[in-house]
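Final report, results section. Input specification for complex C-07:
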Amino acid sequence: MKRFLIPGLFVIGLGAGIGWQLLPAPLPQAWTSQEAALIQSLSLSQLPALSPDLSNAVADNESAAKLGQLLYFDSRISGNGEVACATCHQPARYFTDGLSLAAGTALGPRHTPSLVGLSHSPWFYWDGRKDSQWAQALAPIEAGHEHNLDRLQVVRLIAKDRDYSERYAALFGELPSIPATPQSASPLGDAEATANWQRLSQAQQNDINQVFANLGKTIAAYQRKLLPGHSRFDEYADQVSSESGISGNDALTREEIAGLKLFIGDGQCISCHNGPLFTNFEFHNTGVLAVAGQLPPMGRYDGIRLAREDEFNCLSDYSDAEPEECIELRFAKDDNELVGAQKTPSLRNITETAPYMHGGQIADLTAVMQHYNDAPTSMLSHNEAKPLGLRAVQLSQLVAFMQTLTAPLNVDPKWLAAPSQ
Amino acid sequence: MIYRIRAAVVPLAILFMLPVSQLWAQEANFRIQTSKGSTLEVFTQLDPVVINRIHSWELVLIGADNSPLTGAEISVIGGMPDHDHGLPTLPIVTRETSPGHYLLQGVRFHMPGRWQLTVTISSPQGDETGLLDFEL
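Structure output:
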């Protein structure tokens, strides 16, 4: 018998270990009042109406949104005539592209974030280097790896297109006269474009910048239409109270409910992924490896400096806000806590927007959960997250919960495709 | 030494001095004693305070002699002791709106949980500090 003792103990130990990893813990009968309040706080029913964008006078103008939609889907606004905003932010993919790194006219350094619900954010780009959606919309047009056009060419395209120029005039007044030469000019372009820009008069530069900014404002007006829809989670959350049983309705499975419990509890996900959009729109260093071949990015530490320097920020001449209304920019912080910090993405529709992280470094949600469970040392500064010590079954439950956040968009279908003029 | 005041009523006249919405708290959200025995009352623009929304606070300072503490330089710093990080913004007292009443702008909290803020006050009365400790 003795010869079976050690193998027997080994098998029992192995079984216990596997069981520990894979067997779910029983759910309690009811949520505590604190848990119920947290769950309710995540419901889309709690999402406030969009705040006005005081820097954008046409943010909620329907005609502006229509012009913005036309521009959004127009691939003529690119150096090779093939790239539109919709090339990377595809409606059918919840306004992402399914790629690790965005591919415009060339491969970019960052993963394409979803635009759904993004109008609620005070900051744009993964590092928050833009403080309005209209200022953000301008930058890709001139980025060499995205649209690879320049602002003079964009303004000239509007002036030459009768429909565009009429729509523009109805919103902002007649277009200013655009110089016939040079062909291209921008303060951000290549050597020739920047030299051309310097040769323009101050008045010409201001005219071009103003039209360019106004076009960004129409694209932002369009993007404000892109809101998430009510998901199975919301159906569950809207019926939760501390009096109701934990599985009080059929919207979620027990596995998904177990994932929700972890999400608001031991998983600590709700620390950053909070509120009805499952994001605080703030910046955190969570120890994600740099994209292969790239240096670890400085993240928000650089982003806030760039936002302050931005020629199109809330305090600029092209903003419609009074300086005292630029609350976010005036009271933004910049300190060492922000080194390597990237913006928390929304988890709405997260199952449909793989891969994940600012460089698309993590392929699927199972690997994302493993990343947060391990909380590896950050390449730059420190990882705010700490190892969770969750079991394999618990990571699966969290992934299951993510499935409950996907729903058709709460968007009139007319905004989800290229308009027919 | 942390108190939540439940029944302090603020004269409406104070509210009219501020660029307010109707959401401003009409009762103090917090009332604490500072290290020198002054009273600091906090009235928040969002009542109740919720996460992820930038807003202003009114700080009302009453000296130990029961008169408004005027001409004070005030700074507010803080964070989450359980998460080892600070506030997401840099709130600043931008002006004294009336004697002893100060407008703190740029306040935002970005996580549910326990927050601690330290208010540092420099006035003719000397330097003093107060600690706000609360859950969101």
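The interface with chain B takes residues 38, 41, 122, 270-272, 274-275, 280-283, 327-328, 330-333, 335, 337, 384 of chain A (CB under 8 Å). The longest strand of chain A covers residues 283-284. This concludes the modelling results for the funded period.
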